[in-house]
Amino acid sequence: MNTKTALPAALAVACAAVVFAPSGLRAQGVGQQPAADDVADEITVVGKRSSSTAPGAAVARDILERVPGGIGFVEADRFLEDFAQSIGDTLIFTPGVFADTAAQRETRISIRGSGLNSSFERRGISVRRDGVPISRASGSTEFQEIDPLTIDYIEVFKGANGLRYGAASLGGAVNILTPTGRGRGNSATLRAEGGSFGTARASGSLALAGDRWDFYTGVTGLRADGYRDHSDVRSVYAHANLGRRFDGGAETRMYLTAISDNFELAGSLALDDALANPTAAGRPVTIGPFFPGGPVTVLDPGPEADDWDRNLDVFRIANKTVVPLGNVTLEAGAWYAFRELDHAITRFAGVIVHEEHEAGGFLRLTGDAALWGLSSDWVLGAEVVASDNDARRFENVSGERGALRTQSDQDARNVLVYGQLDIALSDTLTAFLGVQSLATFRDSDNLLNAVDGDVSESQLNPRFGLLWDIDDSAQLFFNVNRGFEPAGISDLTAGGILDFTPLEAQQAWTVELGTRGQRERIAWDIAFYRSWVEHEFIDLAQPGFAGVVSATFNADETVHQGIELGFDLFLTPAPLAELGGELRWRNAYTYNDFYFASNPEDLDGRVFAFDGNRLAGVPEHVYVSELRLDRHRWYAAVNFRWVPDGPFVDFANTVQVPGYELWGVTAGIDVTDKLRVFVSAENLSDEVYISNVSTVANQSVENARVFTPGQGRAVFGGLSLAF
Question: 48, exposed or middle or buried, with CB in 10 Å at 0-12, 13-18, 19+?
């Protein structure tokens, strides 16, 4: 079958068979469509504690169920039983999301092929915390700003399904909801963990709630020596929010985040070296000798000698206020963030130092009305954000700042306006009409020995969708939309290392068809999509410098298509159920078929013969599974991650990373009502594999060091004490 012209039909047939199977006893599955009885029970428990600024998980699920496209929903208890060190660890079981590790605390996240090969600053996904953006105005996201231990639940809106938050990029939006005193009640928790590679993490939280006020704060400290040489981590995260209710139902909430995230960088390796010596740090780059006994010239002494690291401090304050106005609800907010980055890498790139100030605000109106005799819901929103970044680059002299090489004042501004109308055509069929308009401006004024530049981009992006409620436990959905993503400052300046180079905005048309629901012993979520992309951002690592410096250019035409399949099977036999036990098999499969539809041309005018080649950076097939047994006060689970073949490292498709299989186990017991003890083991077979690559044009020619080994066998354990 030619997957480049049609998606596999077998899964489509299976999808239809599941949807139209006879209805039975419903049970919550796939983490995003609970049964009606489950929702009612949860609302009974949570409804009294929820707030308009921080809706509970049941309310969030109900909203997600009305999205005519691919979504994901992850509650914290799904990942807190493992050693989740980054947000990538929390999204492992969300189909369509690929997360890998580029460094000890650095995760690369790609949704439907977004930001396939971007380096440390990730593009293609709008990330928000409690509905307020934490993605930078300049176009990238620092995923290490997020502490998994201060998350209540996560919403994933794939592609333009994130229009509720104004998102229309290929990757969509991720919204991270924080615990509140209203949701937690008067409580406190202490959590301590430790394990392999000198890892230790401690966390504490406090929640208080009164009639009008509520308060939550959480603080986490993490230290680890790391699996690889020179991968030490020392980080502290703090988050707090304070809510206040007013007469008439209005509510306001202040958010405060402060982090200091510091970790060493082990660098990338050659493929053979990465597989033979996975714990090693990057090797020095040398040339010579040119004659017997002649000198050896060290181009770059490597990560240990020059102390490659990434140190990020962030201070962020935000507000969100919700005011009911009859049939209309007004939501407004504002935020300010200060980020300070000290990032030492190669001798070529030097020490990158950024000090960025960012401020923004948003306004969102939602309501319902009768339109042409049909009931409808609507949303109108606007968002404005601006940032100013003092970007400097120094020589790297054995890990210390040397002479100032470049300095630039980088400005970014975004103006976003969007709206959506949901019209109930019948009791079971709803149509969705939406539009988004995004205008962006990027400017780099260089103050020392570099080229100035600026670029403005704007586009109107329509969306149409249909949602059919087959019955009260199954849905079919369809949508077509236009996507838009302007280049970020990091793309335009190669992270501040190269001169400003204008790039065209990435655009795409996407068609999506899928279904979700549950029957007696199965819950499912399946989506098929195809995106026709123009001007996709392609990154090429520069050979000779350990593959850590990237230059970005626009491809002409590419195609992203795939299948996102999540399903839970409820396997509890009657005898186990009578004993209060439950056996569940959770599965997530992602099929990524991304390829060039024409020959791209780089910024120097070179034409690459890539037409028909696969896009590098993400594997074609990814399957994750977990079989879990719950029994009264304890649980045990075995998990499995399978990548049959790794990604291509180059767009010429000459070198492909080997596939891998990873096995793990988790277990825990509630010793008392207040004390839980848990343990997790990862990569039990100690398989050597490649977790991340930087992409190049033709690896057979360049032989670049762009491979990051994955973590070996590890065991972590901990305890959680509630008061």
Answer: exposed
Beta bridge partners of 567: 524, 587
**How far apart, in whole angstroms, are the C-alpha atoms of residue 592 and residue 597?**
15
Task: Tokens for 573, please give them.
Answer: 């036999």
Residue 9 buriedness (CB in 10 A; 0-12 / 13-18 / 19+): exposed
**418, containing H or E segment:** strand 400-424
Enclosing domain of residue 57: 9-280+297-443+465-722
Specify whether the CB–CB gap between 508 and 533 falls below 8 A.
Answer: yes
> At 563, which amino acid appears?
I
For the stretch 601-632, pLDDT in tens is 877 778 889 999 999 999 999 999 999 999 98
Nearest to 456 by CA among 498, 519, 412, 513: 412
Given CA atoms 418, 565, 91, 73 in this order, what sign does their dihedral have? positive
CATH number of the domain where residue 690 is located: 2.40.170.20
Residue given tokens 């909430």 in the structure block: 253
- Edge-first strand listing for the sheet containing 132-133: 71-75, 153-158, 172-177, 126-129, 132-133
134 within some domain: yes
Give the span between the Cα atoms of 582 and 574, in whole angstroms: 10
Please answer whether residues 125 and 172 qualify as being in contact, where contact means their C-beta atoms are separated by less than 8 angstroms: yes
Q: What DSSP element (H or E) covers 273?
A: helix 271-276
Report the domain count for the chain. 1
- Rounded CA-CA distance 596/350 in Å is 34
Size of the chain, expressed as the number of residues it contains: 723
- Amino acid 400 reads E
Q: Does a structural domain hold residue 565?
A: yes
Taking the C-alpha atoms of 142, 145, 148 and 154 in order, what is their torsion angle to the nearest 10 degrees? -60
CB atoms within 10 A of CB 114: 27
Name every residue whose Cβ is closer than 8 Å to that of residue 154 and which is 6 or more positions away in sequence: 72, 73, 74, 87, 90, 91, 174, 175, 176, 177
β-bridge partners, 560: 531, 594
- The distance between the two most distant Cα atoms of the chain, rounded to a whole number of Å, is 90
Using one digit for the tens of pLDDT, what is the confidence trace for 415-454?
999 999 999 999 999 999 999 999 999 999 988 876 789 9
| Residues in Cβ contact with 518 at an 8 Å cutoff, skipping those fewer than 6 apart | 26, 27, 28, 29, 30, 33, 35, 473, 474, 524
Q: Is residue 289 part of a domain?
A: no
Q: CB atoms < 10 A from the CB of 416, how many?
A: 22
* Cβ-Cβ contacts under 8 Å for 500 (sequence gap 6 or more): 444, 446, 450, 451, 452, 453, 454, 492, 493
Q: Which residues of the chain have pLDDT under 70?
A: 1-50, 102-105, 117-121, 287-297, 450, 542-550
- Integer Cα distance of 196 and 681 in angstroms: 10
Backbone torsions φ then ψ of 105, nearest 5 degrees: -115, 5
Beta pairing, strands 187-195 & 714-722: antiparallel
Position 511 in a domain: yes
